[in-house]
Amino acid sequence: MAQYDIADRSAIVTGGASGIGAAIAERLAAEGWRVVVSDLKRSAAEETAARIGGGACAFAADVADESQVAALVDFAVRECGRLGAMVNNAGIGEDPSPIDEMKAEHWNRIIGVNLTGAFFGTKHAARVMKAAGRGGVIVNMASVLGLVGFKAAPAYTAAKHGLIGFTKAAALELAAAGIRVVAVSPAFIRTPLIAGLEEQVMPLHPIGRQGEPREVASLVEYLVSEEAGFLTGATYLVDGGYTAQ
Ligand SMILES: NC(=O)c1ccc[n+]([C@@H]2O[C@H](COP(=O)([O-])OP(=O)(O)OC[C@H]3O[C@@H](n4cnc5c(N)ncnc54)[C@H](O)[C@@H]3O)[C@@H](O)[C@H]2O)c1
Questions:
Q1: What is d(CA 9, CA 175) in angstroms, rounded to the nearest whole number?
Q2: 4 flagged as catalytic
Q3: Cα–Cα distance, 163 to 180 (Å, whole number)
Q4: Domain boundaries in the chain?
Q5: Which residues form the signal peptide (predicted)?
Q6: 9-240 in CATH: which number?
Q7: How confident is the model over 164-185, as pLDDT tens digits?
Q8: Of 175, 212, 220, 168, nearest in space to 190 by CA
Q9: Ligand 1 atom with the shortest distance to the CA of 144
Q10: I want to staple 159 with a disulfide (CB 3.0 to 4.6 A). Which of 8, 115, 129, 132 is the partner?
Q11: pLDDT tens string 118-154
């Protein structure tokens, strides 16, 4: 259990039904947070919430739809107590498409989920955190592709670079309200998102393997804790040396 006071505090994890999000939800629940597992996929979110226990509940929402994100945040406050942490984790990968052939709908959907979705999450979390007057923490799930480029993923790379920039600006603005905003930048982590790419991405990590979802979750748990009270505006790598080369 956490060594800090999280009584009556809820944490929302978007994209919480799978991969990194599910590991974060599980880790926060184990530390005593009241977790709202949110996902596009309702039944998968319900299964994850039931599996992790600790009073976790599920809420279906598409992060690219502002009204659904607003409803998610209001549900968390109503059902699970003051919002202490918002983890904007939901994201989608990009099917390779040459830039000169890329459809605007493709670009807009990748940006809409990976970047605008985190803006909506930040906006509505800040709304209720400010109203409660006791601060909070917002974690944006970026990527090493928020720091370096990657061939065949231009929209995803743009979204994650944008998310790191947004995190800095939001941290500056929300610091006065006691709200910390941080980003996390994993390299390739073993989840359904990169299924089939293992052989291709493994050699990119000097440490010689992909990361595990729990290795991202432990960093996020630290970032939302009071131990991390001086951390805001930065992105934290969990990348097996990917960007050190
Ligand atoms: N796996 C990696 O290698 C890796 C590396 C760097 C960053 N990331 C980022 O980590 C986050 C989680 O990725 P993952 O690997 O766990 O993926 P995943 O595919 O295992 O899980 C993503 C979850 O998000 C949900 N989701 C997708 N679109 C959504 C939407 N519009 N609204 C709500 N939920 C939605 C999916 O249903 C799924 O449950 C993403 O933001 C991803 O970009 C992943």
A1: 19
A2: no
A3: 15
A4: 9-240
A5: none
A6: 3.40.50.720
A7: 999 999 999 999 999 999 999 9
A8: 212
A9: 6
A10: 115
A11: 999 999 999 999 999 999 999 999 999 999 999 989 9
